[in-house]
Design a protein that fits this description.
By secondary structure, the chain is α+β, with helices and mostly antiparallel strands. The protein is 52% helix and 16% strand. It is rod-shaped. The relative contact order is 0.08.
Length: 664
């Protein structure tokens, strides 16, 4: 079994103010508990280390590697052992590792041999007991390891502990044989019984503090997920839960209290949990770096790493766990080195958060270089290398919460800024709305006030023309010009009122069944020069349309054509029903064509713009709102509007406007 991996950050959301205050208070309490636990752990860890080194008996160690794993003790006794370091590290091997331990003469009694780490599969201790006369008896073997039932161990301690029969006058030699699917790391020491029990107690204390910190972190992740509903917090919670389960397997708690009769199950499940924890961590990092804008290839590399997990499970449950564990350590190194590169490609705006994330990945990389390589057989091992997964998981979990807290703070600040900007925008919008309402009210009042005198002028001119038989021709011409000017001004005011109603949302849409041919005939008859219009239409064309809008669109097109075409020229008006390509249902198409007058061709890019009038059009009263109104009404109905000029050599240029409306 090999080390596992850490995890990383996420994002928040909103909640109701009361619930948010309660949750934040709970989260703050959790953080207050976390700091004392961290301090206690910082004190307990060195104490455990000192207890490990204290009161140990200085022994001589020698090692021999059995590549086949089948050598018997009689064969081993004749082998040439090589001096061994305090902790033997041979990486992942298929054979067996033999360690010869020589205990010098000592009067300290009783003595225990303690074997670590706890995730080793098959440990056998060969020793020769002494008889009452002090003579050595035949070699005996005692079994330990996580593949040996816990309830059959010699000592019911988490650490593998076996009693030794030593002498005060001559050295005592015993052999330890190791076979394991995990790394061949073996630490054998000899200590007094009191020292061994004291170290066992400190181990349990350290374990309790460690699990307490992880559970507090899990609690904080739960609260954050409730607050934010962010998938990263949920994944972080899963990683904390996985860390708890991994620790219980890793330090033998499951074997002692939950599965004392199923050693093979404990071993397989321990390997599975280790691989699963790494796979979940890689998946978490894939989501994390994606959230921070990492390149797509980096996200895919992290995600693809998780594809090894099914293969690892197959190996573990088919008695090839050593392959799964070796791959697990290599994937761990690969993922960490990948992270140390990807962290420099993340798009993090906040400088502090950016450097926290970079420092986290860099520290993990340095840690793994120092702690995982010896597990692969590269470099010497120390006592702290025996359980590297626990330290790196704890470090990663704490640092992830630092990153997440910073990110949450930035999100809250950004959200607060956004809320202030929205409030300011709403105030500005309300002010604009009030200003528009005041302008609309003023415009309505102004139009109404202008309409009354114009109506009076129009009536007066009509009376003068009706009774003006005795007036000279020049005066009659001037009266007709006045009448035309009043009519033009009245049309401009109508356009302004219609556009104002449309833009303020007061224009209502009321669709009904109508004969469009009849509506077109009415619009043509209402024009002062309607006789110039040549209508081409079927005898009847029933459709469901907005009658007011249709008449307004057609009236504006005819008014534009009659007003800006040469005097006396013909206006072509076509009405037909069709089904456009790619469209569903029946549509109605209206085309209005006229020759170009003195105003010339309008700008095709601006012809439907509000207030636009061609350079030569200012000699005629107008507002530049007619075609703009047509465009707005056609788009409102989901139709299309087009303008197409046509120039032919030797003839007057033509202008064509085409409107297509769906028949709802």
């Amino acid at each position: 079994m090999t080390p596992a991996t850490p995890a990383t950050p996420a994002t928040p959301a909103t909640s109701t103010p009361a619930a948010l205050r309660v949750r934040l208070h709970t989260l703050c309490c959790a953080r207050l508990w976390l700091m004392p636990l961290l301090c206690l752990l910082a004190l307990a860890w060195p104490l455990a280390g000192r207890a490990e080194l204290a009161t140990q008996i200085e022994v001589e160690r020698a090692v021999w590697a059995d590549p086949t794993g089948e050598a018997r003790l009689e064969e081993v006794l004749g082998q040439a052992f090589q001096p061994a370091p305090t902790i033997v590290a041979r990486g992942y091997q298929r054979g067996a590792t033999w360690l010869r331990v020589t205990v010098p003469p000592t009067a300290a009694q009783p003595l225990w041999a303690t074997l670590q780490p706890l995730y080793l599969d098959d440990l056998q201790l060969y020793s020769r007991p002494r008889g009452p006369d002090g003579r050595l008896g035949p070699w005996t073997v005692r079994q330990e390891g996580d593949r040996f039932p816990f309830d059959r161990r010699e000592r019911a301690t988490l650490n593998y502990s076996l009693a030794l029969d030593t002498s005060a006058t001559e050295p005592t030699v015993f052999y330890v044989r190791l076979r394991s699917t995990s790394t061949h790391a073996l630490y054998v020491n000899v200590r007094t019984q009191d020292s061994a029990l004291q170290f066992e107690g400190l181990t349990l204390l350290w374990l309790g503090l460690y699990l307490g910190i992880v559970l507090v972190l899990a609690w904080m992740s739960t609260l954050r997920f409730i607050l934010t509903r962010d998938i990263l917090w949920a994944m972080n919670l899963c990683l904390q839960a996985g860390t708890v389960i991994l620790t219980l397997f890793y330090l033998g708690v499951v074997a002692k209290y939950f599965m004392p009769h199923a050693p093979h199950g404990v071993d397989a499940w321990t390997s599975s949990v280790l691989c699963g924890h790494l796979s979940l961590g890689m998946l978490y990092y894939a989501v994390f770096v994606k959230r921070f804008g990492a390149p797509r290839w980096a996200v895919w590399l992290y995600a693809c790493t998780t594809l090894a997990f099914p293969l690892q499970l197959w190996w573990i449950w088919h008695e090839q766990a050593h392959l799964a564990m070796g791959l697990n350590s290599n994937l761990l190194l690969w993922g960490t080195f990948l992270g140390s590169i990807v962290t420099w490609l993340l798009r993090i705006q906040d400088t502090r958060l950016r450097w926290i994330v970079r420092w986290l990945f860099t520290a993990q990389t340095l840690y793994l270089i120092a702690f995982v390589l010896p597990l692969l057989g590269v470099g010497p091992m120390t006592f702290w290398h025996l359980y590297p997964a626990l330290l790196i998981n704890l470090f990663g979990s704490v640092m992830q919460h630092v990153v997440l807290t910073r990110r949450d703070q930035l999100d809250r600040d950004a959200r607060g800024l956004l809320e202030r900007e929205v409030a300011a925008s709403q105030l500005l919008l309300q002010a604009k709305h009030d200003q528009l309402a005041a302008s609309t009210s003023f415009l309505g009042m102004l139009l109404h006030e202008l309409k009354n005198p114009l109506a009076s002028i129009r009536l007066a001119v009509l009376n003068m023309l009706r009774h003006g038989d005795d007036l000279p021709p020049a005066q009659l011409t001037r009266l007709e010009h006045i009448q035309a000017a009043v009519l033009g001004m009245d049309t401009v005011l109508d356009r302004c009122r219609q556009v104002d109603r449309l833009e303020s949302g007061a224009w209502g849409t009321k669709r009904s069944e109508a004969d469009l041919v009849e509506l077109v005939a009415q619009c043509v008859a209402a024009q002062p020069e309607g006789g110039r219009v040549a209508l081409s239409a079927p005898t009847s064309l029933p459709a469901r349309v907005d009658v007011q809008g249709f008449q307004t669109v057609l009236g504006n097109l005819l008014d534009n054509a009659l007003g800006y075409s040469p005097s006396g020229s013909q206006i072509d008006l076509h009405l037909q029903s069709l089904t456009p390509d790619g469209q569903s249902g029946r549509w109605v198409c209206v085309r209005v064509g006229n020759a170009v007058g003195k105003a010339g061709l309008p700008d095709a890019d601006r012809v439907f713009s509000k207030y636009y009038r061609a350079e030569g059009a200012h000699q005629r009263t107008g507002s530049g709102l007619g075609l703009y109104l047509v465009k707005c009404l056609v788009e409102r109905e989901g139709g299309t509007l087009s303008y197409r000029p046509e120039s032919r050599p030797g003839t007057t240029p033509l202008i064509h406007f085409e409107v297509c409306l769906p028949c709802h």
